[in-house]
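Task: complex structure prediction.
Instruction: return structure tokens for all chains below.
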Amino acid sequence: MENILEVKNLSKKYPEFELKDVSFELPKGMIMGFIGENGAGKTTTIKSILNIIGNYKGEVKVFGLDNKKNEREIKEDIGVVLDDMFFPEILLPKDINNIMKDVYKNWDSDLYFKYLMDFNLPKDKQIKTYSKGMRKKLEIATSLSHHPKLLILDEPTSGLDPIARNEVIDIFRDFIQNEECGVLLSSHITSDLEHIADYITFINDGEIILSKTKDELIEQYGIVKCTESEFNKIDKQDYIKYKKTKYECELLVENKNEFKKKYNINTIDKISLEDLMVLMVKGEK
Amino acid sequence: MLGLIKKDFLMLKGNFKTWLILLFVYIVMAFQETTNLSFLLPFMCVVTMLSTFSYDSYNKWDAYVCSLPDGRKNSVRAKYIATLLLIFVTLLITTILTVIIDYYRTNAVNLESIVESIFGAIFATTLLQSIMYPAIYKYGVEKARIAIFIAVFGFALIGGVLSKYIDFESIIQGLAFLENYIMMIIPVIIVVMLYISYKIAETVYKRKEY
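Output:
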């Protein structure tokens, strides 16, 4: 399968934070959920892919092209929603159309105004009068209106109510119907990713600790619930992390079927992305 | 780049009423033949342009623009061009008005005085732009204001101290011969000043991480 985005050994050092050899691949026609706690390195990774920050080591290829050598060409086909970064709020949505038609070669004014209508966004009101959710929808409409092939979205559904989130997710789903396209979607709202993501990439403390298809994750990973005495009999290498509560122990296991065969413990729950995040970050080894 | 120039103009359209009032004040003053205020409107436009930096910064526009095609490359250029266009247009308006009012009042047009005031206005506005813009890109709007204030205060202080040891008056008198070439020198100074300022701002912007 051809990749639409390839990130190889991306490293970036700050005095208080470091991105360490971040690598992942997003095949065409897929949506990748990019998860991790606040400050884990999601936005830094996204900004590096887009060359918003420089001086990083490693290689980024978008559409098979180097993101630095072919920056202009690549950006013509990328739609972007960045967390809290957008047009100055004294502008009107119709101003954005005026500006963007001279920024993108493929800017489609009709499509842009159609999105505004679908999202119930007035085009003649200053952005500052919009609610947080409306602003987010405007950012999404803007990111989609030049017929991009790759969407890079940093927290695109934050601030949206469940109905609006559903609308937006449906739009991403429609977008991916074109198998030449792809979506990299960073989000804290893991339930959204459970609905639409094909791949999950998990970053923690600047390092990718997991990058797999969602199906693999759901089929193979599990949460074992057992008593402390049962826990004491389990080999360390058979679980990834564990968490002890007052009444039981929770273990994150990579292969729940093998675990079942080896130990006589039947309480193995299906994993949710939220459980995975919590146990990966907060669990002990 | 056209889109980014448009963005700055669209951000300024809310100031249109204020500029009309200033224009009215200018016309009244021009009729009363008080001091020459032809620099007022272009100068105010540059000052207003500075406010666009605050809005940009508040909404983290610089990070967003860097995600657009040629965004980083064109952002500084667009700001400089938008400002110069604004200076040019407002100066054109005030010059036309000055000519009309002059003619209405005296049945003659004092071309020499008008050209002098145009040059003066361009010099003052581009000087402000040339100093402020690189400082804003480097330090941000708020810190740049403080930095400029400290720089001006520092220069005044150094000048004051040096004046005790250096006879500035005789230096100025020695340079008096340049007065005949002032109309040629000022455009050169403006171009050089803007070029250096733009290059500094561009370098700062290219290196900056948003």
